[in-house]
Every structure is written in structure tokens, then in C-alpha cells.
Write a structure and sequence with these properties.
Elements: H1 14-23, E1 27-31, H2 35-44, E2 48-51, H3 55-58, H4 70-83, E3 88-92, H5 102-116, E4 120-122, H6 130-138, E5 143-148, H7 154-157, H8 167-183, E6 187-191, H9 195-204, E7 209-212, E8 220-223, H10 225-228, H11 246-262
Helix pairs in contact: 2-4, 4-5, 5-6, 8-9
Subunit structure: Homodecamer; pentamer of dimers.
Keywords: Cytoplasm, Magnesium, Metal-binding, Methyltransferase, Pantothenate biosynthesis, Transferase
Enzyme class: transferase
Length: about 270
């Protein structure tokens, strides 16, 4: 049964997520960027919907997440929120809108919350953005952290390879996770790090840890919905499990439509007025 068919839909909150970690229930999280997809994902029963800056890649065709603007993120987030009845909606604050200035970080977070109706924001980084996180939290805006491979810093890394394999970077990641917890983040995403390290982080902090390419010993998992559904097929990292092949299905449907139009088979008499 669809969640939307239930007469008793209970909204997911930060408290719900903390309870899930406490009882060992895994948290499910997917991205969505538009009304139709968000309705499908929410109706299926997902716990968290991330309006990710990955919209820059999958929706706009950019090579990185950096070009997407605040206005564009709010547009996507507003579209998603309109469709959601149960899931907790988190929105990425885009690159350049929080890193260097805590006052700007606060303004960015407030804009997202007021204009989109989302439930929380997500930021990338640890100790270097602690002031911005603290400032956002001071306004009562829930913050999700993001450590490991942080796509907004891709030009600093120079590669999308696994992060924190060396002891020094691993120690910093653990320290940063503790900083995010102490600052008041309600959860942390860990991207593309060794599974052993991710497990250690999840056991070290009391808040939920969501993994993407971080093994199975964390509190939940997140994937980009277009990747998981096989709509974008060029991106096939080890951590991605493709649950459908919608690109092939959709291509065949379009080809069948073209064939029927060319053959004057569509529309037929029953499809005409």
C-alpha cells in the first residue's frame, strides 16, 4: 500500500530519525528535484528526501555541483515540498552561499526555509564551517552535515576517488564528525570513505550517519534517484545498485510513440473526439 493511501500519515522529523538510530532501524534517503518524482519517492515510503545540489548534474547537465544557484535550489526545493506528505525534506545550500561568512550562511538557510518550506539544510565540511553551522542553528534551522568526498570541493581534491584512506585524513574526519555533533547537527552524510572508518564514525557519534559509498554499518543510505533508477547510466560507481533500467524503458516508449505517429496509428478512432 502506498503511504499516501494510509489515513494516518505521520511526518518524519529529526526526532523520528534519532529514534530510528536508537532502535537500529536503517534510514532510507533519496534525492528528488521536481514535483512528480518527489510524489513517487514520498509515496513509496522514503524517510528523507534530499533536494541535492546534484540537480546541477542530473537536471542541468553541468559537470560539477558548483554552478547551481540559490534561486535554482529554491525552485527545485519548492517543487519537491509541494508533493511531500511524509518524508523529511533536506536542501543543499549551494556552493559559495555559506562557506566564508556565517552571516551569509544564516541568510541562505533562512531563504531556503522561508521560500521553499523545506525542513532542514545540508552543508559540506567540518571544522572550517563550524561558525556557519552554529549561526544557522541559532535561528532554529536543522542542519545536516556532509563529510568525506564533498563534491563542492572537487577542484581541491582533483578526483572523485575514495577519501580518508590515510590515517591523517581519517583522524580529521572523525574529529570533524564530533565537531558537527557538538555543534548541533541532527545527522551527517558520509560519502565515499572506507566502510571500516564509516562504522567507527557511526559508533562514535550519537546522531544518525547516512552513507553513500560508505559501507553498510552506518545508520542509513542515500543515492541519487536518477542513478538508482537507471535514468543516468553513464555514472556507475561501485557503491551504486541500479534498481531499474528506466532509460531503456523510456527510450523504447518514445520510439514506439514515434513509430505509431509515423504509421498514422496514433491517435486511433477511440483516442479522438
Amino acid at each position: 500500500m502506498s503511504v499516501h493511501q494510509s489515513s494516518n500519515i505521520k511526518r518524519i522529523t529529526t526526532h523520528t530519525l534519532q529514534e530510528m538510530k536508537g532502535r537500529g532501524e536503517k534510514i532510507s534517503m533519496l534525492t528528488a528535484y521536481d514535483f512528480s518524482m518527489a510524489g513517487i519517492v514520498d509515496g513509496a515510503g522514503i524517510d528523507i528526501i534530499l533536494v541535492g545540489d546534484s540537480a546541477s548534474n542530473v537536471m542541468a547537465g553541468h559537470e560539477t555541483t558548483l554552478p547551481i544557484t540559490m534561486d535554482q535550489m529554491i525552485y527545485h526545493a519548492t517543487s519537491v515540498v509541494r508533493a511531500v506528505k511524509r518524508a523529511f525534506v533536506v536542501v543543499d545550500i549551494p556552493f559559495g552561499s555559506y562557506q566564508g561568512n556565517s552571516s551569509e550562511a544564516l541568510r541562505s538557510a533562512i531563504r531556503i526555509m522561508k521560500e521553499s518550506g523545506a525542513h532542514a539544510v545540508k552543508v559540506e565540511g567540518g571544522s572550517e564551517i563550524k561558525e556557519s553551522i552554529t549561526r544557522i542553528l541559532s535561528a532554529g534551522v536543522p542542519v545536516m552535515g556532509h563529510l568525506g568526498l564533498t563534491p563542492q570541493s572537487i577542484y581541491k581534491f582533483g578526483t572523485y576517488t575514495v577519501r580518508a584512506k590515510e590515517e591523517e585524513e581519517a583522524n580529521k574526519l572523525i574529529a570533524d564528525a564530533k565537531i558537527l555533533e557538538e555543534a548541533g547537527c541532527f545527522a551527517i552524510v558520509l560519502e565515499k570513505i572506507p566502510a571500516k572508518l564509516a562504522k567507527q564514525v557511526a559508533e562514535t557519534v550519537s546522531i544518525p550517519v547516512i552513507g553513500i559509498g560508505a559501507g553498510g554499518d552506518v545508520d542509513g543510505q542515500v543515492l541519487v534517484v536518477h542513478d538508482m533508477l537507471g535514468i543516468t547510466q553513464e555514472f556507475k560507481p561501485r557503491f551504486l545498485r541500479q534498481y531499474a533500467d528506466l532509460r531503456t524503458t523510456m527510450t523504447e516508449a518514445v520510439q514506439n510513440y514515434i513509430t505509431d505517429v509515423k504509421a498514422k496509428d496514433f491517435p486511433n478512432e477511440s483516442e479522438s473526439y
